[in-house]
Amino acid sequence: KKTAAKTELKPSDKPAWFGAVISANSSRVYSCYGGRKPKLDGKAVTWGAFVSGVLPGSPAAENGFRTMDLIIEVNGVRVANEYADLEAFFASLEAGKEVKVKFLRYNPQAKEWDLKERRFTLSPRPPVSSESETYKDDFFKIEVCPFTWDLRIKTVILDAYDGVYLKKVEEGGAFGLFGIESGTVVLRVNGTDTPD
């Protein structure tokens, strides 16, 4: 069976997206469920990637995916047991097409993992940070860009806050002098919200 990590990922001309933070299938996660490992047909599932968070308004949220769902297959391609770049995989799929996602969800009443499947039409991917306009301020010695959905996933700030992302903070500028580093999200300045 093909594995997402071993499949050549080429972005589609009309890339889709999923909108979730993903983490590895790991025994540390099982401890949350009394050590009960996910099983499929009586065998331990050693592949897949856990949903660690879901971005509000994303296809993942709109199609009922939850934190701790274990994504095991997308369109018949097995998701690898690593910090799989599921967003890159979804970007290789064409928006407007149907996708089938198989996943396991823990059932606390039965104390086991249930196999589930969702079919949905892929949504067009919103712009990512690398496609967004940046603003450089020579006085403050910073470079900022909008706080786009991919940065929300990267920073695991999934709430609907507006703000800007500090792509670059140079030494000697006001931000650098106060220890504010590149990769910081600025939500307010002097009590005033920063717009995207």
Describe what you observe in this structure.
This protein has 196 residues and is an alpha+beta fold. The chain has 5 helices and 14 strands. The strands form 4 sheets. Strands 1, 4, 5, 6, 7 and 8 form a 6-stranded antiparallel sheet that branches. A 4-stranded antiparallel sheet has the order 9-10-11-12, with no helix packed on it. Strands 2-3 form a two-stranded antiparallel ribbon. It is elongated and about 60 Å long. It starts with 19 loop residues before the first strand and ends with a strand. The model has no long low-confidence stretch (mean pLDDT 86).
What distance separates the N and C termini? 42 Å
Helical content band: 10-25%
Secondary structure: number of strands:
14
Strand % is 25-35%
Question: Which radius of gyration do the C-alpha atoms yield?
Answer: 19 Å
Low-confidence stretches: none
What class, by secondary structure content? Answer: alpha+beta
Largest sheet: 6 strands, antiparallel
The SSE string, one letter per element, is EHEEEHEEHEEEEHEHEEE
Describe the global form.
elongated
**How confident is the prediction overall: mean pLDDT?**
86
Number of helices, where a helix is a run of at least 4 consecutive DSSP H or I residues? 5
